[in-house]
Amino acid sequence: MEGQILNKVKAFIDRGSLIDASMPVLVALSGGADSVALLRVLLELGYDCRSAHCNFHLRGDESNRDERFVTELCQKLGVPLDVKHFDVPAYMKERGVSMEMACREQRYEWFEELRQAYGCSCIAVAHHNDDNIETFFLNALRSTGIAGLAGMRPKNGVVVRPLLCTSRAEILECLGEIGQDFVTDSTNFENDAKRNRLRNIVLPAMYQEFDGAKNALLTTIENMRQCNELYRESLGVMRNIVSDQEGDSLVIDLEILNSFDNREMLLYEILKPLGFNVEQCHDMLISAVGRHFISSSHKATINRMTIDVLPLQLREEKVYVIDLEEDKVVEPISLKISHVDGTSFSPEMVDGKRSVAFSSDILQCSEVLLRHWREGDRFRPFGMHGSKLVSDLFTDIKLSEKEKNETWLLEADGEIVWVLGYRSSQSFKVPSDSTHYLLIILADKL
Q: What is the rounded distance in angstroms from the CA atom of residue 89 to the CA atom of residue 71?
């Protein structure tokens, strides 16, 4: 095999630490020129290769022809081969995805299963720099951000692209020199897909009209890749707007966020991993206090000075039944209970927040429990006429979404009698000068 392409690919692999030579490599082998060249180059460089071929049965006899070709090729080269047949229409119907996405998802799921089963270090795919230019333009036409204009990465998790440093012309020249044949996908010449129109019409015309266009585009993609890396590093510095973070929960400081000129994009970069889109992030910055935004996994709530982001199922749903006849409660929080008999009650004994008093009538309730708040919860705040939504109390005292979800309620026979730490209820009010009542203190420790 011609030494120039070998040296180029070897240097590219070494520079990016793409492949661990001590472990096998799983090569995605379609039978086309690119994947055949990838397999031959990696074998020539001394890597221990296994191959995987997907038959999607989308091109009739051509699909079976491709399978026969790769089978014969791997037998000739002494390379282990796995072949899998896929029912693409059934997958599309089941998942509600496009044909392209169905093929991609099934292909990579299977490749990962094989990689783990055979102990391979990576999955090698045959993208080259012409593919990268096509991807650059496709992403630009989708109104992408900086990451999309950075093109494909040489290494994305366990997926590596050793031929990204080469061109399609170099690949064909290499195969011609060693007399290696390959199969051709006839759909590559049909211009009904955007990528094919770029490949067959737009880019050839551009290269003809503008000398050096291809090299300039490759340089631009590399520049964008480096800019994207710098951008990601800078984001780490700017993320001091996240004033509190615990697991998948975030509290975003709006005052700091609003000090950035590009605050919308910064907010999007922070919330994108949690499933929020650009439009939602735009609306968050102009929305009124109390508005909620939902992603597939999280809920963002706009507060006066923060945006609180919590997993949708973060709140503890477990209910704890407690016995007020005891002198203490230890789970889920610590409560000290005093049964007073003979001492006259005075309102100064409690603050209504961390210490409360109830008449002895509460002991007649069939069920007393501790739980977290739910949407629509109401109670009768001490000192007020009528009832109030617990959520309105939270808003009044400016609790963050995280603090709301960590607050416990004491409920007696279905009625909320205490929002622990914040407000007691009119229910079971101790009569003036009563000598029989309960004192309950929210204790840090018992």
A: 25
